[in-house]
Design a protein that fits this description.
single chain, six-stranded antiparallel sheet, two-stranded antiparallel sheet, globular
């Protein structure tokens, strides 16, 4: 089974917290903060959302930065995901 978002929604898999700092110090589990970065798992079809036509610019596999308070956390088949509107995603990380 797969999550298939509706309208302008996007399903994200949040990246894991880092185990060490950039200088090499180990972090305790209480010190680890989940990053506001994720990988796009699924993208809705866009189209008319209310009275606005939304074109989806994200695609599966995109690495994104998102707003901390714009996401809904869901558990699906034992995995944790975030679902949010495309508009609440702040940036795409380009390499």
């Amino acid at each position: 089974m797969k999550l298939a978002p509706l309208g302008d929604k996007v399903v994200l898999k949040q990246l894991e917290a880092q185990e060490t700092t950039k200088s090499g110090l180990l972090l305790t589990s209480q010190s680890k903060e989940k990053p506001q970065e994720a990988i796009v798992v699924a993208v809705g079809p866009g189209g008319m959302v209310g009275d606005t036509n939304v074109e989806m610019v994200l695609k599966e596999g995109d690495h994104v930065v998102f707003s901390r308070y714009g996401a809904m956390e869901v558990k699906f088949e034992g995995e944790e995901y975030l679902i949010m509107r495309q508009n609440d995603i702040l940036a795409v990380v380009k390499e």
